[in-house]
Write a structure and sequence with these properties.
The chain is mostly helical. It is built from seven helices and no strands. Helix 3 runs antiparallel to helix 6 (128-177).
Length: 213
């Protein structure tokens, strides 16, 4: 029982640390919270954390030895990087349209934009760093839990890790939701532009890594 409890505690702590580490999901949470308020950040969390949980459950059910090869990682880096660059570009366009609308200019809604939940899902699926984490640290933790307590213990570790990530992401969301009162609409636009630029930079770095492999 103590081994299982220790494993669950380690899974929660690892998940919380993972959620606190700066990355595409965290940037998207802050960006959508600045744009849509608390609901936007929560919807990104829903998509990202449910996707992460599904992958963890698959690992817990016996696929902990799964590991993407170099070709898969390279493809994920290029595709995921282009996705982040596209999201950043769409965000820039959205900010420009909102700025024109606020000064009385004609507003034009950008077509083909993903909703916050879909962005959250894609930010995990197309994130090469996430898959490396799944194939290494997460797989090892699930394998250890299964070895100590069977599939039930591995599933409990998966739940604990997902809760840890969600708690950390929720902190980002709550902190970001107070930005409108603190910075005002104009200040939030500048913050969103900075976050969009960060997404573009992260995406470009992924693409370059994938090309150079």
């Amino acid at each position: 029982m103590s081994v299982g409890g220790a494993g669950i505690g380690a899974a929660f702590a690892l998940g919380f640390a993972l959620g606190a580490a700066p990355g595409p999901v965290q940037v998207l949470i802050l960006s959508e919270t600045a744009k849509r308020g608390l609901e936007g950040g929560l919807r990104v969390m829903l998509g990202a954390n449910l996707t992460l949980f599904c992958v963890l459950v698959v690992l817990a059910l016996g696929f902990a030895s799964f590991g993407p090869g170099p070709g898969v990682i390279r493809t994920l880096q290029v595709v995921g990087g282009l996705f982040l660059v596209w999201i950043g570009g769409v965000e820039f366009d959205s900010i420009r349209v909102e700025a024109r609308s606020s000064v009385g200019g004609p507003a034009r809604v950008a077509a083909g934009r993903l909703g916050p939940t879909a962005k959250g899902v894609a930010s995990v699926i197309f994130n090469p760093g996430a898959w490396i984490f799944f194939a290494t640290t997460a797989s090892a933790l699930m394998a250890n839990a299964a070895s100590a307590g069977g599939t039930g213990a591995a599933l409990a570790a998966a739940v604990a890790m997902a809760i840890g990530v969600s708690c950390s992401d929720l902190t980002f969301t709550i902190l970001g939701s107070g930005g409108r009162r603190l910075f005002g609409e104009r200040g939030l636009r500048w913050i969103r532009m900075g976050l969009a630029a960060v997404l573009v930079v992260i995406g470009a770095a992924f693409v370059l890594q994938g090309i150079r492999r």
